[in-house]
Design a protein that fits this description.
There is one protein chain. This protein is of the alpha/beta class. The chain has a single domain, classed as HUPs (Rossmann fold). α5 links the parallel β4 and β5. The longest helix is centred in the middle third of the chain and has 15 residues. The protein is globular, with a radius of gyration of 17 Å.
């Protein structure tokens, strides 16, 4: 699958977390001449540092960014390590069963619903989010079946005004990293760590996946990891 050649909308709202995937998606959209805006959501995630990264990325690409706060959302998702401070974020690879602790129930459906409404109000024809194949095992709201169903829901809810654009859905994280290198994505501005400290921990699932992606893609990793600094 060629990500560069995937069909793009004329305009899109990028759900921008500040991580590698959504930042590469923003770069791809701009490369394809898509008119873009971006949306970031504070849903009570412990890694709220990612929103500062999203702001840095949006500034780098001169993209308008809307930030939305859902101050009570974390209380509705008790039981997830990403929204409940006394639940430890597990270390290891995404393939590990322990990574299910990082699932925030129905998160993408909530975020996409907000984004679809905002896209329609801004006259944008699509919402784009960076779900990829590496997320499928753990996160049900990153799987093709969910994306297809959400796309139909978006079409119904907006009278066909807003579509869903998911060009990375069948791509690996390494594929995304390679594409980002081609597009000169400033990965040093991005943030992935689920533990939320200023410096990436280097050991949680998303840090492990990030390191692996750069390695498999044959690219230098510009990220500073706490684990590497302490070793």
């Amino acid at each position: 699958m060629s990500l560069i050649e995937s069909q793009a909308p004329r305009s899109a709202l990028i759900v921008l977390s500040g991580g590698m995937d959504s930042t590469t998606l923003l770069a791809l959209a701009l490369h394809r001449g898509v008119k873009v805006r971006a949306l970031s959501v504070d849903y009570g995630q412990r890694h709220v540092t990612e929103l500062s990264a999203a702001a840095d990325v949006a500034h780098h690409y001169k993209t308008p960014l809307q930030r939305v706060r859902l101050p009570d959302a974390a209380a509705l998702h008790a039981g997830s390590a990403l929204t409940t401070p006394d639940i430890p974020v597990p270390d290891g690879h995404y393939a590990a069963e322990s990574m299910r602790a990082t699932v925030v129930p129905n998160r993408n459906m909530i975020l996409l619903a907000l984004a679809i409404g905002h896209a329609m109000s801004q006259g944008l024809e699509a919402v784009a989010y960076g779900a990829h194949a590496g997320d499928h095992a753990i996160y049900p709201d990153c799987r093709p079946e969910f994306a297809d169903t959400m796309a139909r829901a978006a079409s119904l809810a907006t009278d066909n005004a807003v579509a869903l654009w998911t060009p990375f859905l069948h791509a690996s994280k390494a594929d995304i990293a390679r594409l980002g290198a081609e597009l000169h994505v400033p990965y040093s501005l991005t943030y992935s760590c689920y533990k939320g400290a200023r410096l990436h921990c280097g050991t949680c699932g998303t840090c492990t996946e990030r390191r692996e992606a750069f390695s498999l893609a044959g690219l230098d990793d510009p990220t500073w990891y706490r684990a590497a600094c302490s070793s």
